[in-house]
Each structure stands twice: as structure tokens, then as C-alpha cells.
Design brief:
The chain is of the alpha+beta class. The chain is built from 18 helices and 12 strands. Helix 8 packs across helix 13. The longest helix is centred in the middle third of the chain and has 31 residues. The radius of gyration is 24 Å and the shape is globular.
Length: 491
């Protein structure tokens, strides 16, 4: 038997349907609703303690939101894109949401009118748990604080001198981690390649932005710090978007511990730095702290975000490229020959194709700051925007073999083609909120892969799948669901 509260709720819904039977007028494709329920109905449903009842009501009256909760933003976005096309309107958590894989519309949102879309949408409490609420630059929804921290710390530090330094630091960091290769072995000559690559990029980041000479942090500590970053990513995915009512107490506690652990890592790393170093990023932060221009929490979050951004995304892309090479002998031989001749075309295109075929950031999420209009499409203030890079980067009209890993797809594509009216290849985003470290990422990936390929061969091992078969989790970052094991042999 249904209780009185449930019957009353169903009765109210029925009355509402009768009063507003035909309410929704869609201006472009998307799921059709016979009724638009106001926000407070969504809130009422979320507060229902009976999980089965709550989920069933969400499935009926808020199906898009339920799909996003059950899946992830990229997977749900791909579902609606494949069903309705390259511009789709959905209702996400009772907010109008536009999913875009149309290159011109995406370019308008990100670049041509990018200043109106520098906000990202997310769960306010979740961002507070993560330390990202109004702090740092990745998900800071306080526009003034975001601009200040991005310009004065991140952009200021990522200057031409640092990019020049990155060339030899990337080489030295790779040499240093290679000296301890046995620490990454799970058996003779078979290594955890993701752990190995993340250790290299972590070492580079610590030197360039925190002034820690290579070797300051032991290999054991490096592996521990890298694992802390990986666990923080899991917390990030857990807290970022789903409604608070869907948090599980045990999971929440576990992820809060991961967040605290990485914050402890930040403090531990800070204690190792030489107070007399001339590292621009950390010194700018400390000067701003001393002058009360930022808080200690803001400073720590900026350091934390530099560590996670500098360590993970480049490593995953390099893993995908090594995986592609391991099953393509002709491509590997061509790359090896070019590198010996000091030619880098295949290297550059190979990394670009890895970013296209499996983008580490499968979607770009934005939120409209003010009302806007694009090609007669009205975009109201606070409308969520999801740019579906996975779909956009596989369109055969722009990429000759869009569904295959083939360097021909990106031979004519630049990483920052801002002079074109329509940008179709956006692995680092574009516009005022594009990846601030994109040129550093390019340099360090090229240096690391060159060093590794000239000296070692890599083959899949211990059940690691091919690039095409590799299982990845599509969330805020597209990451392998299982460790990548590879046989590494000296040439």
C-alpha cells in the first residue's frame, strides 16, 4: 500500500499535468516533455528518503537528470548527441542545458563570445568539499578571483623562460625516473606505465613551479604523491555534479580522506622547498599571501591544482600514444627514424592524434553568465553548456578517418587555430578559459616520448588492451579503468 504522502504527491502531479498538459516548446532537437515541472518539484523528489521511489519519480519526470546521475556527463552527453544531433537541448537538474558538437557553435561559446562562458556548473557543496569553491582556477565560480589567480600566478609563471627551461627539465626528469625503473616493475621488464609516466610529469611540475630540484623527493614519496593525485581525481568525479542527496556516507568519507591527503601532500611539499629559490609561481603566491591579496587556502588550492593538472593529463595522452605505437610497427619505425634525423612531424602528429582519438577531457562544461543569442537560438542566463569533444573530434567531414587512430586525421590541424572562423580540433579548449598550460604540455610530452622511444621499445603486457579496446572511464577526465602494463626493453 502507498502511504498518504506518496498518494498526495501523485495527486498533485496529476493535477499539474491536467493544468499544463502542453507546456514545452523546443527550439531545437532533444527529448520531448509533455510537462515542465517547476524547480521545487525536483527538489521535493530529491528529498524523498525512499531511494526506489525517488529514482522511479526521477526516471518519469526528470529522465535526463537521472541518466546523468546513473552514467557520467560525457556518456550521457554522447547518448543524447547520437540520438538527436550536434545541437541538443536537455533538462539537467532542472536547468536548461545545451549539448554541442557543432564546431561553429562550440567556437562561439568558447572563443568568439568566450567571456560570457567562463563559468562552469557544478554542485556547490561538492566544490566546497574539493576546495574548489571560489578558489583556484579550474572550477572557481567567483569570476574576479578566477581572473586574478589565473593571470597573476598561472599565466605569469608560464612564460617563455619557463617553456625554455621545460625542455631540459623534462629530459632530466625522465632520466631521473628511468634510473629507478625497477621501482615501477610488477615483474621483470614489465612496468606500470601510467605510474611511471605520472612520476615523470610530477617531477617536472615540482621543479618548474615549486622550485624543487630533481631528486629532492624520493621515488617512494613520488609514487605516494602521485597516488594521492589519482585518488583526488576520483573524489573530484564523485563530488562535482551529482545532487547531494545521492552522496553515500561511506563513499563521501572515503573521498574526503583523499582530499585531505592531497592537501597534506601540498603542505609536505612546501616544507621541502628552498626559501631562497627564485621560482616565479610559488614566490608570486607567497608574496600575494604576505600582502594579504590571497588567503592561505587559495594559495594551497592553486598549488594543488597545478600538481593535478601538471601530472595527470599529459601522462594519460602519452600512455595512449605508446599504446598505439605498440601495435603499429611501421609507425614506430617511422617515428624512430625521424627522431634519429631530428625530425618531429610524426611525433607531433602522433600526440595530436592521441588527444583527438581519446581526449583526456571528453567534454568542456560551461555556464552562461548573461543572456545571449547564437543564430537565433536564445541562451538564457545560467544555461548549462556541454561541448562534446568526443563526438566533434570524430566527425568524418573534418577528420578523414574519424573513428580510426590514424595520423592523417590531424596532419592539417593546429593545436590553437584561433584565426579560423571554425575550430574543429580543440584538445586544450580555446578562448579565455583554454588550458593555460597547453604549450608546456606539448613541450614535455614531445621531450619525454622522444627520450623513451630513442632508447626503449614498448609492448602491451599482462592483458593490457589495444588502444581501440582499452576500457576508459568517461568522466571529467577520460582515464583507463585498469593499470596499463607494458613490456619495456632497451634498444
Amino acid at each position: 500500500m502507498l502511504d498518504a504522502t506518496t498518494l498526495l504527491f501523485i495527486f498533485i502531479i496529476i493535477i499539474y499535468i491536467l493544468l499544463r498538459y502542453s507546456t514545452e516548446k523546443k527550439i531545437f532537437p532533444g527529448p520531448k516533455h509533455f510537462i515542465n515541472l517547476p524547480n521545487y518539484f525536483f527538489d521535493i523528489v530529491l528529498k524523498i528518503s525512499n531511494k526506489n521511489l525517488r529514482n522511479n519519480l526521477l526516471k518519469v519526470f526528470f529522465p535526463e537528470s537521472f541518466r546523468y546521475i546513473e552514467l557520467t556527463v560525457p556518456l550521457a552527453s554522447q547518448y543524447y548527441t547520437s540520438k538527436y544531433g550536434d545541437i541538443v537541448q536537455v533538462n539537467l537538474f532542472n536547468q536548461p542545458t545545451i549539448i554541442i558538437s557543432n564546431p561553429d557553435f562550440a567556437d562561439y561559446i568558447l572563443r568568439r563570445n568566450g567571456k560570457n562562458y567562463t563559468l562552469r556548473f557544478g554542485n556547490s557543496l561538492g566544490l566546497e568539499y574539493l576546495g574548489m569553491k571560489n578558489k583556484g582556477i579550474i572550477w572557481n565560480r567567483n569570476i574576479q578571483r578566477w581572473k586574478y589567480q589565473r593571470l597573476n600566478f598561472f599565466q605569469k609563471a608560464l612564460n617563455n623562460k619557463l617553456l625554455d627551461d621545460a625542455k631540459y627539465i623534462s629530459n632530466d626528469a625522465t632520466d631521473y625516473i628511468l634510473k629507478y625503473l625497477e621501482k615501477y616493475e610488477i615483474q621483470i621488464n614489465i612496468i606500470d606505465i601510467m605510474d611511471f609516466l605520472r612520476s615523470i610529469t610530477f617531477t617536472i611540475t615540482c621543479h618548474l613551479f615549486l622550485g624543487l630540484p630533481i631528486g629532492t623527493i624520493s621515488i617512494e614519496k613520488t609514487k605516494y604523491y602521485v597516488n594521492s593525485i589519482v585518488e583526488y581525481f576520483k573524489a573530484w568525479e564523485y563530488f562535482l555534479l551529482k545532487p547531494t542527496q545521492f552522496y553515500d556516507e561511506n563513499e563521501t568519507n572515503k573521498h574526503q580522506k583523499s582530499i585531505k591527503q592531497l592537501n597534506d601532500v601540498v603542505n609536505e611539499i612546501l616544507s621541502k622547498r628552498d626559501m631562497n629559490n627564485n621560482c616565479l609561481f610559488i614566490n608570486s603566491l607567497l608574496n600575494a599571501l604576505n600582502n594579504q591579496q590571497i588567503t592561505k587556502e587559495e594559495m594551497n588550492q592553486c598549488i594543488l591544482e597545478m600538481l593535478i593538472a601538471g601530472t595527470d593529463t599529459s601522462s594519460v595522452t602519452m600512455f595512449y600514444f605508446l599504446l598505439a605505437l605498440s601495435d603499429r610497427n611501421e609507425l614506430e619505425e617511422k617515428l624512430l627514424k625521424e627522431l634519429k634525423d631530428n625530425s618531429y612531424q610524426t611525433l607531433t602528429n602522433g600526440l595530436k592524434e592521441s588527444m583527438r582519438f581519446k581526449p583526456v577531457g571528453p567534454v568542456i562544461m560551461r555556464c552562461a553568465i548573461n543572456d545571449d543569442i547564437y543564430n537565433n537560438i536564445q541562451i538564457k542566463k545560467e544555461t548549462n553548456i556541454i561541448v562534446n569533444l568526443v563526438d566533434m573530434h570524430r566527425k568524418n567531414e573534418y577528420f578523414l578517418l574519424g573513428n580510426q587512430f590514424n595520423l592523417i586525421n590531424v596532419e592539417d590541424k593546429d593545436l590553437s587555430n584561433t584565426n579560423n572562423e571554425k575550430n574543429v580540433f580543440l584538445p586544450f579548449g580555446i578562448g579565455p578559459k583554454e588550458c593555460v598550460g597547453r604549450w608546456l604540455a606539448k613541450i614535455e610530452m614531445e621531450i619525454i616520448i622522444e627520450k623513451l622511444i630513442l632508447n626503449y621499445s614498448f609492448k602491451r603486457a599482462n592483458g593490457t588492451k589495444t588502444l581501440e579496446e582499452l576500457q576508459t572511464r568517461w568522466d571529467i577526465a577520460q582515464q583507463p579503468t585498469h593499470p596499463g602494463y607494458m613490456l619495456i626493453q632497451k634498444r
